[in-house]
Design a protein that fits this description.
Four copies of one chain form a homotetramer.
Chain A: H1 6-28, H2 35-41, H3 46-52, H4 56-80, H5 85-102, H6 104-116, H7 122-145, H8 154-174, H9 185-195, H10 200-204
Helix pairs in contact in A: 1-2, 1-6, 4-5, 4-7, 5-6, 5-7, 6-8, 7-8
Chain A binds a DNA duplex (21 and 21 nucleotides) through helix 1 and helix 3.
Amino acid sequence: MPRIDPAEQSRSRRERILDAAFSAFAKRGYRDTAVDDIAAAAETSKGGIYFHFPSKEAIFRELMQTTADKLVARVERAVALEQEPVAKAEAALRTVLATFAGHRTMARVLFLDMAGAGRAFQAETNRLHERFAELIKGYLDEAVAAGAIPPLDTGITSVVWFGALNEVVARWLLADKPGSLEETYPALRKVLLRSAGVPEARIAQGGAAHGGATMVGATR
Amino acid sequence: MPRIDPAEQSRSRRERILDAAFSAFAKRGYRDTAVDDIAAAAETSKGGIYFHFPSKEAIFRELMQTTADKLVARVERAVALEQEPVAKAEAALRTVLATFAGHRTMARVLFLDMAGAGRAFQAETNRLHERFAELIKGYLDEAVAAGAIPPLDTGITSVVWFGALNEVVARWLLADKPGSLEETYPALRKVLLRSAGVPEARIAQGGAAHGGATMVGATR
Amino acid sequence: MPRIDPAEQSRSRRERILDAAFSAFAKRGYRDTAVDDIAAAAETSKGGIYFHFPSKEAIFRELMQTTADKLVARVERAVALEQEPVAKAEAALRTVLATFAGHRTMARVLFLDMAGAGRAFQAETNRLHERFAELIKGYLDEAVAAGAIPPLDTGITSVVWFGALNEVVARWLLADKPGSLEETYPALRKVLLRSAGVPEARIAQGGAAHGGATMVGATR
Amino acid sequence: MPRIDPAEQSRSRRERILDAAFSAFAKRGYRDTAVDDIAAAAETSKGGIYFHFPSKEAIFRELMQTTADKLVARVERAVALEQEPVAKAEAALRTVLATFAGHRTMARVLFLDMAGAGRAFQAETNRLHERFAELIKGYLDEAVAAGAIPPLDTGITSVVWFGALNEVVARWLLADKPGSLEETYPALRKVLLRSAGVPEARIAQGGAAHGGATMVGATR
DNA sequence: AATGAATGAGGCTTCATTCAT
DNA sequence: GATGAATGAAGCCTCATTCAT
C-alpha cells in the first residue's frame, strides 16, 4: 500500500502555503494581505503557516527569490538557444514578455508588490533590479565584443532596457483592459535595439528569426 | 491694524499639513506614516488634520496631484524655451533629472511612495504615468512631424523613455551612496535619442545647446 | 454651569485604568491579566489604555512604584510620631502589617505579582526590596547609635526583618482562611526585636506604647 | 548480550526531559520556557515530552517536588550528624546556604520560578514553604524541649527564619555580582539564633563546631 | 477651528496541546 | 515510544477615524 511520505507531505503543505501566499499577495498586495488570508487560501491554520515560515516577511522574501530565479532561469534557457549576440538580447526580451504574458500573477508580485511592500524590502528590490540589469548588460557586452553593435555605455543601456520593460509590463498590469502583452514585442524590440545602436538593417530582419517559434510558450 | 485673514490662516495651516505629510511620506512611506506623525510634524492635532482633509488617503492624493503638476509645469516651462523638436525632448529629460536631483524628497514621494501606497492608488499611479508618457509623446510627435526623427511608434517610444527615466531615478533613490543624478544625463540622453532614431550626427552635438544654461536648477 | 475640565477628566480616566489594572493584577497576576481585562474593568477600550500608557508593562511599573511610595510614606509618617529608636522600628513593623491588613490587594500586588511578573521586572523587584531593607536599616542604625541596641550587623538584620515580614505577609495572602494579619504583630515583634538584640526588659514592655492607638487604621 | 532495558531507557529519557526542563526553567522562568525549548534541550520531540508527561505544568510540579525533597533530605542528613539542638538548627541553616551556593540553578527554580509561575502553583508554593517552616520548627521545638532556648513561639520564629533565609538567597540570586552566599552564614546565624533566644554565650561559640567540616559541600 | 481622548477593528506572532504516522 | 506537523485560542499593540468640548 502506498504510504504517504510525511516529508513529502510537509513539503507539499509548504508549497501550498507558498502558492496561496503568492496569489494573495498578487491580488491584494503585501500589506493588504493578512496572514489569515494566506492560511485560509492554503486551507491551513495560522499556526501551520508559522510552523513552516518564521514570518510573513519571510514568505514574501522566499517568494520573490524563487520567482526571480525562475524567470532568470527561463531567460537563460531561451538565450542559450541563440548564437548571435543580438538574437540573444532579443530572446531575453521576448522571453520576459512571453513569461509575464502567461503568468500575470508572477508579474504582479514581481513588479507591483515588491515595490509596494514598503521600505523593508528595498534592499531586496534593489538586488532584483540589479540582477536583471546585469543579465541584460551581459548580453549587450557580448554584442559589443562581437562587433554586432558599436561600443557604448552598456551600463546605462541595460538600465534603460530594464526600465522600459518594467514600464511596459507595469502598464499592462494596471491597464483596465489589458490587451496582449506579447503584441508589444515587435515595437519594443525595435526601439530598444535602436537604443543599443543595432544597425537598421539588422533591426529590419524582424523577430522572424527561428521561424514561428518566436513566442514559445512557457513550460511551467 | 494688520489682522490675520482667517481664510489666509486656514490656508496656511492646510499648507503646513501638506508640507508635513509630504516629508513624512517621503521619509517613511505612505503606510508607515501615521496621521499622528503628520500632525506632530505640522504642529497640529489629529483633529485639526481631519478638519482640513477627509482622510489620510485624500492628503496623499492631493500631494501626488500637486507634485506631479509642479513637475509637469516645470518641464513645460523648460521645453518652451526650445525651438527645435529634439532639443525640446532633451530639455524635458534634462529638467526631470535636474528637478529630482534638487528635490530628492519629491522623487521619493512620486516614485517610491506611489508604488508603495497600495492598490488603492493604482488608478492614480496609472494616470500619472500616462500623463508623463503623453508629455513625452507630444514632443516626439512634434519631432516626427518636423522631420527631425523618422516616423516611428511614438507611443511605445515614450513609454520606453518614461520607463528608463523611472528606473534611473529609482536606482538613484535606492542606491547606498547616491552619486549625482544629473551626471547620468549625457549617457541617458544618448541612449534615448538613439532609441528614437535621432541621427548620430545630431546626437553627437551633445547637450551643448543653450550654452551653460543647460542644467539650471529650479527655483521652487 | 459646572463645565467638566478635560484635563481633570483625562486624569480620572487614567486613574480608573490604574485602579482597574491594580485589582486585575492582584486577582490574576501580571501574566494572566490581559490588557483586555483591564480595559473591561476600567470600562474603556483597549485603545483607550494605550492612549494613556505605552504598554502593559508600563502600567505595572507605575503601579509598583506608586504603591511602594504610598507604603513608604505611610511608614515614615508613623515612624515620625515616635521618638525612641526601638519604638520607631516597632512603628514601622506595625504600620506595614496594619496597612497590608487593610489593603490585601496592595499586598498581593507588591508581594506576589512583583515576584510573579517574570524576569523583566527583577531589577524593579530588587530595588523595591533594597528600598525597604534600607528603610529598616536606617531605624536599626539609629537604635544602635542611641545605644538602644548593641552594635550589630544592621545590614543583615534589616534583610532578616524584611524577609520575615515578607514571609508573614505572603503566608497570610496564600492561606486558605487568612485570619488576622495584625494578630501576628506581637509575636513577630518579639522575635525581631530579639534578633536585633533589644533587651528582654524593653521587649517585655509590649506593644503597649501609645496606649490603645497601637493599631492605627489606614487613612486612604 | 547486554540489551538495553526498555524500561530503563524510558526512565532515562524521562530523566533527560526533567533535567532539561530544570535548567530551562531556571534560565528563563516557567512562563518564558516553551515546551519546544525543553524538547530541544532534552534532544527529544514535543510529542516525546507529552508521552512522558501530561502537561508542562506537571513537569514543573514534579521538578519542584523532587527538588524540595532533595533539599530536605540533605538538610536532614546534615542535621542527623548533630546532637545538640541548637547545633541542629545551625546545621540546617548552614546546609541550605551551602546547597544553594553550590547549586544556583536549584535556588533559581525554587525561589524565583515558583513565585513566577503564576497563581496555578500557589498551593504548591504554600506547601513548600510550610514544609520548610515545619522542618525548622521541629528543630526549634527540640531546642525548647531540651532547654537550650527559652520557651517561645516556635511557629512564628520558624516563619521568620524561613523568610530570612528566603530573602538572603533571593538577594544573592538577583544581585548583579553575587558574591559568596556562604559568607553570609556567620552573620545570619547570629541574628537568627538571637531571634530564637539562644544565649549570647552559646552564640559566641561561633560556627566552630565540628571543626573545619562545617561547610562541607554536598556531593549531589 | 482645534484639541486630544476614545474607539475598536485588525494585525502579527506565540505556544500548549493533539494526533496521524 | 517517538516524531513533527497542525491547530486555534489568546495576547499585545497600532492606528485611522470620530466626537464632545
